[in-house]
Fold this protein.
Amino acid sequence: MTGAELLKEVLQGVLLIVGEYRGSYAEMAGYVDKKSGNAIQYVRATHVVECSWHGHIDRVIISERFPEQITTVEQAQATFSYSRGRRYVFYIDWFKRERGQTYASLSGWGIEEIEDAREAVGAPPGAPPPP
Amino acid sequence: MTKSKAAFLFASQTLGKQRLFLWTFTFKDLLAVKETRKRWNHLLTLLVRTWPQLQGLRVFELHEEHGLHVHLVTNQFIDVNRARQLAMQAGWGRIHVTSMKSEHVGYLAKYLSKERPECLYRWRLWAGFGRGWEWTKVKDVVRETLFSRVYRACKEWKRWEGRGDFFKRMALVRQMMFMTIERGWIPGHGPAGLPYAALDKSEFWFC
């Protein structure tokens, strides 16, 4: 996704978070009933993203629920094709700020990398990146 | 999924593995929530008195237009006409019953995931009733997530007891969780799988 495409989506009002990817963790989360020993389990991922919040850098916890086809942690991990330190767009369903921490939930649109055009500040629109 | 919803699903599994009956009790007129609860207590007393072996779960749902109403899941068939009489006696309006498979009980659990209206703050949105069975309560449910594992390790490390410094504790657990994700640690352990207590203090500048 280019910066122009991203700007277009922001202006359209698409709910998204732009941030630097820090890492992900896939797990078999769930609940266990101490009485019966029954368990409810599901695969989910937690992504940590750094972004700006009121003038300082903050980490955002973005959780991801997987479609039914993904039933193991390994399958979930295989979907992590992100590089630490790169900037991505995270399309979200909701976000909340709770006790000083921002949480969000990833929507079906997922995560898209932002193409780093490395344009010089003030360069005319569409100017090629420096060599 | 909240702990309450998980407890409800566990309780419904205990209630019946085959066929369940879903009851809906509503009013003709819109009533205040406290009045509804009062009438529900009356109706439940009448139901249990009439069918002493009755076991089930009830869920309160605040409808956007029709106010508070009650859903009931039971594992035994009871006479609808008699139940209707009792409902009228307790001041209820329409009742509806349908049989359902136990795996469809998640339909009721969806109410428990919705944001709780302010007027139902501190209410038990669901509860079990009846003799001869133990339904799962929220305190019986253990959550297994990265956060809970890191929390337990921090609790052991810092020897936390009681409920003091709750916000400080949460902030520490969050920091440890971030480090676990960013540095690829085993949940509940530091680098090289060492327990938190065995690590150099300079690693944990934020503590």
